[in-house]
Amino acid sequence: MKLQNQLSLFIFFWFIISCVFGQQGSTDSFPIILNRAYDFYDKGNYKKSVKEGRELLRVAYELNNLEYIGEAYYLLGLNDETIEEYGRAKEKYLKALSIAEKRNDSIFILDIYNGLGNIASLRDNDFEKSEEYYLKGLEIGKAINDPYKMSFIINICWDYLENEQTQKVLPYLSDLYAYSNENDLKELSIDEAKSFSNVNYILGRYLGEKSNFSKAHYYLNKSITTAKQSSNYEELSDAYLADSKVFEKQKKIDSAYLQLMNHNKFYKLFLDKNMLNKLQVEEVKFNIEEYERALELSQKEQQFSESIATNRSKLNRVYLIIAILLLILVFVVLHQNSRRKKLIENLNKKNKALKLAEKKAAIAAEAKSNFVSNISHELRTPLHGVIGITSLLLSEDEISPKNKKLLKSLKFSGDYLLGLINNVLLMSKIDRHKIKIMPRSIELKNVFNHIGRTASYSAEKKNVAISFQIEENVPKYLILDDSVLSEVLINLIDNAVKFSENGNVWIRAKVPKEANVDLKEKVFIRFEVEDNGRGIPAEQKESIFYKFSQISGNESIMEGTGLGLSIVQNLLLQMGSDIHLESEIGKGSLFYFDLLCGITKVKEQEKVVEKEEVIYNFDNKRILMVEDNEINKLVTQKFLSPFNIHLDLASEGNSGWEKIQKNTYDLILLDINIPYFNGYEIAQKTRAQNINTPIVAVTASELAEIEEQVYNSGMNDILIKPFNKSNLLEILSKYLN
């Protein structure tokens, strides 16, 4: 040890001795007393825990140490709460809270709010007060990202369910689902197992009250399994009772009765255990009351100090021994600090390794995303040629009926492949949390018309009749994200058509009977997709929403990727909803979900009108198309051939830029990925020369990935490949008509 350290230790030693002899208080440091008190508490020796807490409070007041005054009040309150002296516990918690707020100790405030919330709920049955404390604690927990916030979510959701306020659980579902999934396969401590069991109980009970029976049983069974492993009879009893009520709601009386018997069994075990705990609590109460009476009969702190003064010489020797022990303790602490430093170094190394692994995982995820994006781009470009040329051939009168049938099949295959690519891209965006919900004012009838046109060919192929119905009480104009709604409904319709050959599919929109939102501002709309196909087996109602999952049992209809229903469920979660399924083998299936939609105000309705038939007039308009793919050029030329348009073509960036400089155009169709100068560079050069010709980016890339860069480079619009004739004419009409 260096001389400087030895001198510091010597000074510290004599400082301790001077403090010991100069002060007639406790010779233990605050943390030692506090830890000792909590050790007694954890072992169930509440009398000694209270004694140590009182000693800590006395010494902390003598030295005016606010931190440990607050800690002492909280400890004493915790003991009072445990032995069900709720009035005294509340008084001490409030004193601790006042001190913690002065010190701005967020973590300590969390513990106190939880205790106050428990007392308001258990003793006073004051749900509003307990809700207030839990919400305050939850707000602080979220602000400092403390894991303890989950305890508040569990407590508040439990109270909501107990007080029949089921709808209030909705904002916390994402946290509950995340906690359930993250801890599903982990080895849990006793406290973690209790939290995990409670989370799954809340989810199961909520889903049961929402009539999502399969998921309700799934989460309640998870709760039961965990509670059994940790012998938590109270959680077991509650979970079996909730499961019994779900079965009763399903009118499955035998299953409901079986679970009720299980509830009674474990409730009796809980009562037996609880009775033993009650006896122990009463014994502890008696011991503490005896201690309090003994303390009152003694001469308390002043008399105790006087007795110490009369035995000064003996106590001085004791203090000296204690000081020596403290010196030994200092050496032990120094040794522990050395070990602690090594431990911190090891932790830092592991943290660095963890960060490196996290970085590698992020790079791998980004590489996967880029790969999916690049592959989709490379597939979309030739698909544009296939779908475009097929569409052109179908419009020719000279094509024989036999060949038209073949061309329709080819176009369907192209559209199917495009849909598959879009689904893979969409799943990738969902995995990366890149989905953005963008509500706007729409007319639901127009959305249904578009969906009907999209699904018509696959329905014809399977000889399935599709019908749409919007009930009269559904507002004509709504505020929602129609692109996400279309994606959800198209996937559900495709799924229904696949399993309903020669049958029927019905798509409905209505206001559910249980909706209680003010219709002047918002409304719940229930969307249903029903078929009379083969139905879905009960054991597969849960698994069909997993990625790549398909219904087994009939190889003739094992088609598709198994992504559709997974996409549906994830998109609905993004919109604050969930998918529900009712199905019976041989009779068909009903999928439905509820969306909370805004209602468009009267003045805004004028903006939502059906597109009138447009008369295109492009006479003598001059358009430059910069495109390196000959098939795409041919398709575009054919699309524009009926119009008196002068179409100029360029195959790469250099020639395109030269034409822009030499000629005047009414519109430029500019492919982004072309040789030499790419589309972004050409657009920037064009704007730098003060050429204001409208430029439309033509690309097979995903819109979200290129949108910002397109507009930043000076382009006016985007046309995604593969596009059809109407898409192209709509763009031209926007800038040329």
From TrEMBL:
PROSITE patterns according to UniProt: HIS_KIN, PROKAR_LIPOPROTEIN, RESPONSE_REGULATORY
Query: What sections of the protein cross the membrane?
Result: 318-334
Which InterPro entries does the UniProt record give? Answer: CheY-like_superfamily, HATPase_C_sf, HATPase_dom, His_kinase_dom, HisK_dim/P_dom, HisK_dim/P_sf, Sig_transdc_His_kin-like_C, Sig_transdc_resp-reg_receiver
Known Pfam families for this protein?
A: HATPase_c, HisKA, Response_reg
The Histidine kinase domain, residue ranges: 374-599
A GO molecular function for this record? phosphorelay sensor kinase activity
- What is this enzyme's EC? 2.7.13.3
Write down the top EC class of this protein.
transferase
Q: Which reaction does it catalyse?
A: ATP + protein L-histidine = ADP + protein N-phospho-L-histidine
Domain Response regulatory, first and last residues per copy: 622-736
Residues recorded with modification 4-aspartylphosphate: D671
Instruction: Spell out the CDD domains in the cross-references.
Output: HisKA, REC_hyHK_CKI1_RcsC-like
The alphabetical list of record keywords is: Kinase, Membrane, Phosphoprotein, Transferase, Transmembrane, Transmembrane helix, Two-component regulatory system
Q: This chain belongs to which protein, by name?
A: histidine kinase
Organism, by scientific name, is: Pustulibacterium marinum
Provide the organism lineage as a comma list.
Bacteria, Pseudomonadati, Bacteroidota, Flavobacteriia, Flavobacteriales
